[in-house]
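Figure 6 in text form: structure in, sequence out.
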């Protein structure tokens, strides 16, 4: 039975929605969950959450509370906070993974703190200088991977090359794509386009043994052109938040159109199943969380405003990645298939 350490105190809606998500995950999956955080608060919230759901003794037996009385806030310097707050929920949860008491950590707290905790406590895979967040994006042609989507705002060309390798392996494991097509996000398709970072990255990716198809533009993100989009974390996070905002705007405008007249209402009623499917396809909560790739054990980063649905799906993703031995396969590939000198 896989064990997931969940940071109960991290996130805008913590701890209630985190705990609700953990309970939902226990109902749907054969896993064990360690809720990490302030014991008194978690017990109080657990009592409230369990009062409204049917949960058997078997589920309660698979839920434990691990004490961590400190919290890393969003406005703190991540590295300093992780080093000083040894008893914070994200540090304790990550420490459980390091000590093999848990197989993965899931958190909706500070991304910087989670990355710092993972890098310092779990260690980086040999050949990787900067771990990167790999986010799955929905598209009409099937899911795609955006890497890095927020871990590293300042990068060098060799970091983007490493992201390309990480994204390629992740696509093979998570999306079952045999030879993923790698694209470099840029302002134009031509080889000479872009800033110094993208130009240098283009050269390194071209010389690699990756299935590199060249530069891709923002309009190519949701068409069948590549499977993995490589960029630095600053650009990746802007892309991710823009896509999220656009999806919400499309759903909102569609709803307004449906209610604009009686004919639109009738059409909207007939189109309701398709609309609900579209809404589900565009909802980040369906994917739950994104793995931090490049560290030696599994760390899942969730959206800061994750609710119980997002947390439950993030735990499900963590369970799937454990079962598919994602980290072992990445580490194995870097040991046997990728020349460190080329990184």
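Output sequence:
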């Amino acid at each position: 039975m896989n064990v997931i350490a969940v940071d109960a105190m991290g996130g805008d809606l913590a701890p209630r929605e985190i705990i609700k998500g953990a309970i939902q995950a226990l109902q749907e999956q054969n896993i064990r969950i360690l809720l990490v955080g302030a014991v008194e608060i978690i017990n109080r919230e657990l009592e409230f959450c369990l009062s409204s759901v049917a949960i058997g003794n078997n589920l309660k037996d698979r839920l434990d509370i691990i004490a961590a009385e400190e919290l890393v806030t969003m406005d703190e310097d991540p590295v300093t906070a992780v080093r000083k707050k040894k008893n914070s929920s994200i540090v304790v949860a990550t420490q459980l993974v390091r000590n093999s008491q848990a197989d993965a950590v899931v958190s909706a707290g500070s991304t910087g703190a989670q990355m710092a905790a993972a890098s310092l406590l779990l260690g980086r895979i040999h050949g990787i200088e900067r771990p990167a967040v790999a986010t799955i994006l929905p598209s009409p042609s099937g899911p795609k991977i955006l890497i890095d989507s927020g871990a590293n705002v300042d990068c060098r060309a060799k970091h983007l090359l490493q992201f390309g390798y990480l994204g390629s392996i992740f696509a093979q494991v998570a999306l079952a794509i045999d030879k993923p097509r790698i694209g470099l996000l840029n302002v134009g398709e031509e080889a000479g386009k872009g800033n110094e970072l993208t130009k240098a990255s283009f050269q390194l990716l071209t010389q690699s043994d990756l299935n590199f198809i060249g530069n891709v533009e923002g309009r190519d993100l949701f068409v069948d052109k590549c499977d993995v989009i490589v960029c630095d974390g600053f650009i990746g996070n802007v892309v991710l938040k823009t896509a999220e905002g656009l999806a919400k705007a499309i759903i909102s405008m569609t709803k307004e159109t449906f209610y604009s007249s009686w004919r639109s209402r009738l059409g909207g009623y007939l189109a309701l199943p398709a609309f609900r499917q579209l809404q589900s396809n565009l909802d980040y909560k369906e994917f739950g969380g994104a793995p931090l790739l490049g560290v030696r054990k599994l760390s899942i980063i969730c959206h800061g405003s994750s609710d119980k649905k997002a947390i439950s799906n993030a735990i499900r993703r963590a369970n799937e990645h454990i079962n598919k031995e994602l980290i072992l396969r990445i580490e194995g590939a870097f040991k046997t298939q990728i020349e460190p000198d080329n990184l």
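Caption detail: The first strand starts at residue 3 and ends at 7.
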